Amino acid sequence: MEPILSHTRPTQTRGCPWWLLLLALLSIGSLRAEERANPADPDQMLRLSQAAIGQSLPDLTFQNQRGEPRSLASWRGKPLLISLAYTNCYHACSITTHSLATVVAKAQTLLGKEAFHVITIGFDTPVDTPKAMDDFARQQGVTDEQWDFLSGDTETVQALMQAVGFTSFRTPNGFDHLTQVTIVDANGVIDRQVYGEIVPTPQLVEPLKELILGVTPASESPLDLLTRKARLFCTTYDPKKDAYRYDYALLAGMGVGGTTLLLVFLFFLRGRRRKKGIDHHSGQDGGFAPDPTGGSAPGPHQGDNPPGPLINQKDKPRF
Prior knowledge:
With 319 residues, the chain is of the alpha+beta class.
């Protein structure tokens, strides 16, 4: 979604005292300077957001909705979703959070309840306190243990906004800002950005699938790892139902292909063993025995003069 920009236009004054007119002109100049200072260009806001991709998050510390300190580094090891909102936003932020919660539930069903984490950070400091963020989470119906709502001081929040390429500026009605969800990999590096008040399911789930396939928990056995990756690989998105399902045809094809490869390997192994057995018997029954010098030594029935026919002792002539 492109940010909606609000501009305050001055009204014309007729018959006003000179000092009031001067004050109005100064106010107009101040507003125009503020507009120039604000990154009001949607294309510029998007460029700043895209420039954050590939950058590492700084290790900043916030407070969650329960008042507990949490550092960004504590979420390393699994993918992380970051959204920003302000608690006095009664429209766009609520729509975005509801939409994100819906897609997060689908992703958890597919990828696992604890496969990734989600954080929402309030950027209207000092209004967005831990209590305000807790109330905001309850209003959105979010009770997920893997989802934290964070608040922080102005300096910390500004550092986070700069790190993820998030831009906002104050208006008479609150804030105008770029609506985005930042996807961070297990090493704390920004992988990509997802835009819009309504979060598209595959745009969020597909990157998470790629990131989770590359993560191998230390406690996971090789069999569990293979099963998990096969399950993720054999899922496909159904746009009509806006949901993921298992592609049983692909799963069956993988099974047939794996069985075929196994049979070919066993046939090849059997052929090699049979060939070795034939060569072994040939070396015992005749042929050339191996020569340590590198040549071919004669076998038991070979020499300079081949043996003649065998003569029975009874038929042996006497002299």
